[in-house]
From TrEMBL:
Phylogenetic classification of the source organism: Bacteria, Pseudomonadati, Bacteroidota, Flavobacteriia, Flavobacteriales
Domain UspA: 1-141, 222-272
Protein name per UniProt: Universal stress protein
Species this chain originates from: Flavobacterium gawalongense
CDD domains for this protein: USP-like
Family listed: Belongs to the universal stress protein A family.
Length: 274
């Protein structure tokens, strides 16, 4: 993990994410890439692609670059290699394409979350990136000061398809020498006896050489509540999940536990794509 992307709209939430990125970068000798997306009206975008200079566009670029320079002078970025880019594209699409072009290892994003009708109608660029990104996404909800992942909850059904993203998760835990809490949430709709759940988890972990972990089985009314309640009981620093990256009708009907958690918990959440 050497290349971290922090998308920014220059808000406080984006700066909260950047502060965490700086701490991870210093701990792991990483480079930080700052990305600001400008979603312009179609006529402006056409003019840019045709090489025309539009005063309004030039002003947007100038202001963004001026803000970048101020951000790079923040004391918490001292000693870190930081590069900045202004890109003309829809935010979520631009973030994902930037990652592929620049071989990004981790995305760190700020999010204020939402609920109810606002969540349904407006959605969130953070949620879209969480759902669609092929690389891990760490979502920061507030200024958390010193970022720690000593108590790291990883919630899963521990099926075979989880094994590949689980390897990425292990790499992340090693950076922070984390205590890994592996938890299976049992609900009325997905109930397993303790013996069955323990066997599933033991069979899963047998393929990995990891230290500092423990198994937990937690019962709750639904998976999201189970993860949140368990995380609160052990005072988790970070919640880890795998996401299927569903789109379209599949996403509408099945929902997304990862996106719900991004919206409804103040704890940092990191997601790994299956």
């Amino acid at each position: 993990m050497k290349r971290i992307l922090v998308p920014t709209d220059f808000s406080e939430h984006a700066e909260d994410a950047l502060k965490v990125a700086a701490q991870i970068a210093k701990k792991n000798n990483c480079e930080i890439f700052l990305l600001h997306m400008l979603e312009l009206p179609s006529q402006m975008s056409d003019a840019i692609s045709g090489g025309s200079g539009i005063p309004e566009v030039m002003l947007f670029i100038k202001k963004a670059n001026e803000t970048f320079q101020k951000i790079k002078e923040r004391p918490y970025l001292n000693g870190i290699s930081v590069s900045e880019t202004v890109q003309f594209e829809r935010a979520s699409d631009g973030i994902l394409s930037f990652c592929k072009k620049n071989k990004i290892d981790l995305i760190i994003m700020g999010s204020h979350g939402s609920s109810g009708i606002e969540e349904m109608l407006i959605g969130s660029n953070t949620e879209k990136v969480v759902r669609l990104s092929d690389i891990p996404v760490l979502v920061i909800k507030k200024d958390i000061g010193k970022f720690e992942a000593r108590n790291f909850v990883f919630a899963s059904d521990f099926s075979k398809e989880i094994k590949k993203p689980f390897k990425k998760m292990i790499e992340f835990t090693k950076i922070f020498d984390a205590n890994l809490f592996l938890v299976m949430i049992c609900t009325p709709n997905s109930f397993k006896t303790t013996l069955v759940a323990e066997k599933v988890m033991n069979d899963f972990i047998a393929d990995f050489d990891i230290q500092n972990y423990s198994f937990h089985i937690f019962n709750d009314v639904n998976i999201e509540n189970g993860i949140l309640n368990f995380s609160n009981t052990i005072n988790a620093d970070l919640i880890g999940l795998c996401t299927h990256g569903r789109t379209g009708l599949a996403h509408f009907f099945n929902g997304s536990i990862s996106e719900d958690l991004v919206n409804h918990t103040v704890k940092p959440v990191i997601t790994f794509k299956i």
